[in-house]
């Protein structure tokens, strides 16, 4: 028969004693470290409650740790954002400074180029560049710059003198900086290069002289590059120039109407001719048979190239737009002589 006996609080059924009982200490230790897990009775309850308290404490500690560590991270993040923003600001400022520097550099080059045009002088870099892009020597380029300056200056003085003598005439503002205008250019073609042709073709030569600046006063660059083709150009360069002259509306074709307009103005009309236009129409048909290689009723640049390659005499079929050999030799000799005198 089992007997039950009471165990005093804090005591033990085997050894009696106080709170210093080894079993009590062992239970506390197990509770603290979870050693009683899986066993029944009070130990399990105490262990479960103790574990929950410990986990709660740990959770609170970890949560407080996360909050504590979040603050430095937030501060570090904000600090990093400010640093990145500062870096971006400095980068944008440097980029703007570089862009501004490039703009200033381009502006300075344009100013220097404009001063070169006004003075008729070239710095060594520009001189070398024109030498590479043209068929001229450095000596010839320098001489052409001086001629350009004289032509522009004389035109400006004549314009001012005309305005002074005629109250109704107003001198064009800044005319000395514009370049070579139509009247000066036409006089140059006639007196220097022996080009005697009618008004329409003169105008076309002026407009086709500097590609991209059709109809505008000829600048120093256009003057030098145009004369390179005009005086020393290859067959291909002269072919392209003549085609631009004859293509009156710049659509890439020389049409029957354009041929008619060019040839009609070039012919000398005889009083006995009842219908001179009939003769012009006959010439147009002959020109088409010679130049229209693909037989589509108009002359493309490719047609013109192929026809000139087969028969070079057709290069100026619709009127003179290149200087004579005599005037070319004379002008180039003048360039050499003027440069030798200056040195």
Automatic annotation (TrEMBL):
Residues 72-90 have a biased composition (Basic and acidic residues). Residues 10-21 have a biased composition (Gly residues). Residues 91-100 have a biased composition (Low complexity). It comes from the Eukaryota. Keywords: Calcium, Metal-binding, Repeat. Residues 1-22, 66-109 are annotated as: Disordered. InterPro entries: EF-hand-dom_pair (IPR011992), EF_Hand_1_Ca_BS (IPR018247), EF_hand_dom (IPR002048), Recoverin (IPR028846). PROSITE patterns: EF_HAND_1, EF_HAND_2, PROKAR_LIPOPROTEIN. Residues 234-269, 279-314 form the EF-hand domain. This is EF-hand domain-containing protein. It comes from Aedes albopictus.
